[in-house]
Write a structure and sequence with these properties.
With 391 residues, this protein is of the alpha/beta class. It has two domains: 152 residues, Aspartate Aminotransferase, domain 1, CATH 3.90.1150.10; 219 residues, Type I PLP-dependent aspartate aminotransferase-like (Major domain) (Aspartate Aminotransferase, domain 2). It contains twelve helices and 13 strands. Strands 2-9-8-7-6-3-4-5 form an eight-stranded mixed sheet, sandwiched between helices. Helix 7 links the parallel strand 6 and strand 7. Helix 4 crosses helix 8 and helix 10 packs parallel to helix 12.
Length: 391
């Protein structure tokens, strides 16, 4: 049933235990189909030449790292220009969510609390707090009323949720829309949470697509009650090594370090050695982000214009979302017309139930591959719309 695909809010159902990440039940089988035109990959698809970067040191990745590698926090500290004591290294952003929750509540006397989580969102952001039996309530970012521009917040409803909560968990680059906060909303969220002693945990794995622009503003810069989580996965195309980090106030970072040691022990030597070698070259991936936008987005715009589909294009990033015309159901479209032409996309109801006519499309693949995929997406749209209008 479609109801099981989107994120689960509320309290944990003790009869069913830990809630499953339902969208994987839909997505993984379709990945296994190996459709040739994959527009579902929201992380950069850049192939690092690790052997060239590491040179002969690649043969040392199985060696123990203690004593012959610099503190892995230093690369993050230097890149973000923060004190190294504010940085905690972890096994990717998802583990970072768990650690951040532990650290934020380290001095809280209550066994369970209420945590507000932004929607739409990636399911683990909602469901991670439920591992600790916390209640999760929803705060929504709303589609723009005129179909263009930022997805905004209802400040009164957010205030009601913040007043009930100990933590607010957010994803500044919203999945699936690709839009960051309006500056007014961001400022209000930071100030309101500070006023009510609510800690903000921001999953910022897509934020580095804005790194070269003056709009780049991670939450850790906005107050000691703000925690930022990032990784080498989405923007830097190195998800396989599971290297992430948390930036927080020194007090929270110390608790996060203790939580990581408890949950993860220590980072693996191969991960640390590869990350150490790649960090000086991360701007290569940012160059590719810009190249893919410049070459791929005009092709997508042309197709959507042909069908008069409203395209609210985010100013940065790797993906965006649009609503299918004529009430076409996104999951049906992906499993029928798209499958017929070998195209894979992500339906919007993977992130929120009322987005069942929405499609998330990523332009994070090599331009020649993207061009072929867009040609086939156009064919799929043509077929679906012609069938719908002929009924």
């Amino acid at each position: 049933m479609a109801e099981s695909y989107w994120p689960v809010f509320g309290s944990k159902n003790y009869e069913s235990g830990i809630p499953k990440i339902g969208y994987l039940d839909w997505y993984v089988p379709r990945l296994e189909e190996n459709r040739p035109h994959n527009l579902s990959l929201n992380g950069m698809q850049y192939e690092w030449d690790i052997k060239e970067i590491m040179e002969d040191s690649i043969y040392e990745i199985a060696n123990h790292h203690i004593g012959n590698l610099k503190d892995p926090r230093i690369n993050v500290s230097n890149r973000e220009r923060v004190d190294v004591e504010r940085v905690v290294i972890c096994h990717g952003a998802t583990q970072g969510l768990h650690i951040a929750i532990c650290a934020a509540l380290a001095n809280n006397s209550d066994k369970t609390v209420t945590i507000a989580v932004e929607s739409p969102c990636y399911a683990p952001i909602v469901q991670s707090p439920q591992l600790f039996n916390h209640e999760v309530i929803k705060v929504r970012r709303l589609k723009p009323k005129d179909s263009f521009g930022h997805w905004r917040i209802d400040k009164q409803k957010w205030l009601q949720a913040i007043q009930k909560s100990e933590i607010l968990m957010i994803t500044p680059i919203l999945n699936p829309s690709g839009w960051d906060y309006h500056s007014d909303d961001r400022e209000w969220i930071v100030n309101t949470c500070k006023e009510h002693n609510v800690i903000i945990i921001a999953d910022e794995v897509y934020l580095d697509t804005k790194r070269r622009h003056e709009e780049y503003l991670p939450f850790y810069k906005l107050g000691e009650h703000c925690i930022s989580i990032n990784s080498l996965t989405k923007v830097y195309s190195l998800g396989t090594i599971r290297f992430g980090w948390i930036i927080a106030s020194p007090k929270i970072a110390e608790q996060a370090r203790r939580a990581f040691i408890t949950l993860g022990g220590m980072m693996g030597s191969p991960t640390l050695r590869i990350a150490e070698s790649v960090f000086p070259h991360l701007d290569i991936a940012l160059d590719k982000v810009q190249e893919y936008r410049e070459k791929n987005l005009p092709l997508l715009r042309r197709v959507l214009e042909r069908f008069d589909i409203i395209w609210n294009e985010p100013s940065h990033g790797l993906f965006g979302a649009f609503k299918l015309p004529y009430g076409i159901n996104a999951m049906d479209f992906i499993d029928r017309e798209c499958k017929n032409y070998g195209v894979l996309l992500v339906p919007g109801n993977m992130f929120e139930p009322d987005l069942d006519e929405w499609i998330r499309v990523a332009w994070s693949i090599e331009p020649k591959l993207f061009e072929k995929a867009i040609i086939n997406l156009e064919k799929a749209l043509d077929l679906a719309i012609s069938q719908k209008t002929s009924q």
